[in-house]
Amino acid sequence: MQTLSPPRGSRVRGTPPRPLVADDRFILATRETGYRDLSAAVAELVDNAVQAGAMNVRIIIQEARERETEGELGARRVTIGVLDDGGGMDFEGLWTALQFGGTERFDDRSGLGRFGMGLPNSSVSVTKRLEVYSWRPRSQVLYTYLDVDQVSQRMVGGIPQPERRRLPAWVGHEVPQSGTLVVWRRCDRLEFKKAGTIAEKLRAPLGRMYRRLLWRGVRILINDVAIEPVDPLFCSPQSSEGGAEPYGGPLYYDVVVPGTNKTSRVSVRFTLLPVNQWQSMGPEEKRSAGIVGGAGISFVRAHREIDQGWCLFGGKRKENYDDWWRCEVLFEPDLDECFGVTHSKQGVTPTPYLRSILEPDLEAQARALNGEVRAAFQRLRETAPSVATERANRNDALLPVPSRLGGMGDRFSYRLALGPIATRQFFDVVVRGRSVVLTLNTDHPFYDRLFSVFPKASDGRRALEAMLLAAARGYVALSPDDRAATQRYWCTWSDALSAFTERPRQ
Q1: Is 321 found in the same domain as 396?
Q2: What's the pLDDT at 32?
Q3: Of all helices (H) and strands (E), which one includes residue 428?
């Protein structure tokens, strides 16, 4: 057997081992972890606070001018602080907390964190300087920091030892007896530059992520204004955004925890949004309320949402009807490997094993809910009154009745119907005595792609209906021969409308 010798001139005995990482380069590389937005990075700090037993978390966002040289003030910078009333940290705990992977609870699956990466990793993705104060009790505040520039320029070789220091004056006097303050001092990767804008942009995503903890009594405040829970399922009695109804009962799955003979429960529930009450909203109103753009699954891990999206529905593609129902999947951290949860807790990638368990039922429910919503919209099309029709019935008195059809005292009534019709026309008109029925062809491309996009209460929808009812009124006065010619014209016109409505082929 050949023995490999070290290269000539190499040092073997007494040589210290090479460091696992090159600190100066690692600190710059890890800034590119890829937190999807500021709320995802701030959530790591909130997670730590909750895991430390905090019931009150204050997020303080302010602008200030920092002193760059002696006697001179630099540009205005945003500072973000997160103050909690958790258990605080002692000397060793604080010194460890700023290390990448530094935690006393490594791989502990009883709470929100596992790897001790959240505090330093999320911080350097946003700021060049992280400062942490922690105390137990209030009279003994410890402080240390992590500075990206100092590490990358090899000015320091690690985390400085904690030292006693006063809290910043801007924290105020209402400081809990124990707790932690995390300060992002030199934020250089913020999408918005105004403190007020940043605060507003954080409210909704954090309210959604922590809705279940907020309902349990945890308080999260941004600049002393409490965050309201945001319920994407629109059905919690604790939320002001109710209105949806549960669809069927909860589904439960006992999934084997990888590497063990134990199981952990996954629970799934669905809700159906109130189509009848909310369909008349305008597009912007629906988007603002979270109806449009919120479809899919809300994945909740340890009572905190970590992802939302359209997966586990098999081959079902997303349609507009799918905006009108919701799904929530709850699981515990011991199933992180099955859900493909990474240390930054920003998403899920379910394994084939998990998909094989959940996907058949979830796809079937998704298709059933899609059918429910589709049927609800069809019923509305068939029964809902039309404002344009009511106006036509009222204002027909302003028009003369054709002399061959009766005297001036005779008036027409109008009805607008929606549904498929036998011909390829976009609309058809039937006159029965003094009743005029205008039917719009719901199978025509113009109806599906343009006409139905307008909410019923919108000015655009009323204008289109009024124009078509006026065309029907003109049809009333025609002779039988002229009506036949008009029908042929409408057929040709509808063909052109269909062609001009078609989307271009890729």
Answers
A1: no
A2: 80
A3: strand 427-432
